[in-house]
Amino acid sequence: MFKKLAIAFMFCVCAFGASAQGDLKFAHINTMELFEAMPERVDSEKKLEATSKQLEGELLKMQEEFQKKYNEFMASADTLPESIKVRRMQEVEEINTRIQNFQQTARQELQKQQNDMMKPIMDKIQKAIQQVGEENGFVYIFDLASPSILYHSSKSTDAMPLVKGKLGIK
Fold first, then answer.
1. pLDDT at position 28, please?
2. How many domains, in total, are found in the chain?
3. 14: in domain
4. Host domain of residue 54
5. Domain assignment of residue 90, yes or no
6. Is the per-residue pLDDT at 107 higher than 80?
């Protein structure tokens, strides 16, 4: 709370101090909306979906193997000697452990791939926003996708069309 008040105070001080220098230009943009409009996003999501389906297929095979071994073990557990029963139970447990490890590794791999694919898109957006800000003399461009913006007036310039133009998006 104190941090927000301090930021608001500094903003007001800067605004009043700079008002003698002329009008300050502020703009806003919704980066999430812009991100959704990026054509590169669609390609990245398709690649991510393909990887996800491939990993799901592998997981399904592992689960089928587990189910088969488990059913075999349960069907013959009463008739097996103790040493064979213990060994087969260990096999079932090993398969279950492999499944859990695979799931964790797959989640990490998907997260890394998503980060790797989305970072260049976000960098491109950030670069375009900076260029629009410099070219149009904006003091600030606020991101409406961020929850820290509590208010924007109709006097604020929407930088979305300018940034989309910079990126070649309609």
1. 87
2. 1
3. no
4. 20-167
5. yes
6. yes
